[in-house]
Amino acid sequence: MVRTAQRSERGPRSSVWLEGKARRGGRGGGQPSGLDRERITEVTVRLLDAEGLDKFFMRRLAAELNVTAMSVYWYVDTKDDLLELALDAAFGEPALPDPAADEDWRDQLRALAREYRALLVRHSWLSPLVGRFLNIGPNALSFSEVIQRVVRKTGLPAHELTGAISAVFQFVYGNGTIEGHFLARVASTGLTPDEYHRHAMTEVTRSPDASEVIGESARIMEARGGDTVEEMMERDFAFALDLLVAGIEAMVARSRD
Known about the structure:
Elements (H helix, E strand, L loop, with lengths): L1 H8 L27 H15 L6 H8 L3 H4 L6 H12 L14 H18 L3 H7 L5 H15 L8 H29 L3 H12 L3 H17 L4 H28 L1
Helix pairs in contact: 2-5, 6-9, 8-9, 9-12
Pfam families: TetR_C_1 (PF02909), TetR_N (PF00440)
Organism: Streptomyces griseoloalbus
GO molecular function: DNA-binding transcription factor activity; transcription cis-regulatory region binding
């Protein structure tokens, strides 16, 4: 309660990266031995992957580390601080292209989009945190910098760059979020994605209100091709990404005209 009162007196919390707390080690002398912030963050990511954001609590983390909850508070002030650290740790995973390399911007943009999609699918807890925090940790900033430099290579005017970034990466955010949540739900049933899809399509067509729409969706999916759920998702993602790249090319040509 004291911690909450002190925070409210100085205004809303901004970011762990702006409040002098994203340092190595704990708050000073006397912190528990055998722990460091990197290890705590690593275990946090592992728990979030295994149990989800809703089931993540400091006591559960402490039990996994085999320490008391107060021991964890030597290294972070709140659970939000720890979630923000975990968020940035995840953003250190994608393989980033070198914008200075002699490589076509289209290939580099596609590579970045695929890495971001894979990150969101791999860590289904990540997407809610992207909007909750400022996301200005070192890994997130590196990711953003590479995106900006690659999109600059397109030849778009400066005032259109943010729109292009939004079009591509907000699409990827939505696509990866939905895919990650879908796969998490499938895993909870014990079915494979293909089994779940067949079962869901069979069930929903029993509803008179849904059968016509679902039937049309099934015909569209059949025309699209793909024998498995993974193949269908991959084809949709690749085609949508091609549409966005083509849109950028068209806007570049229009700006030159």
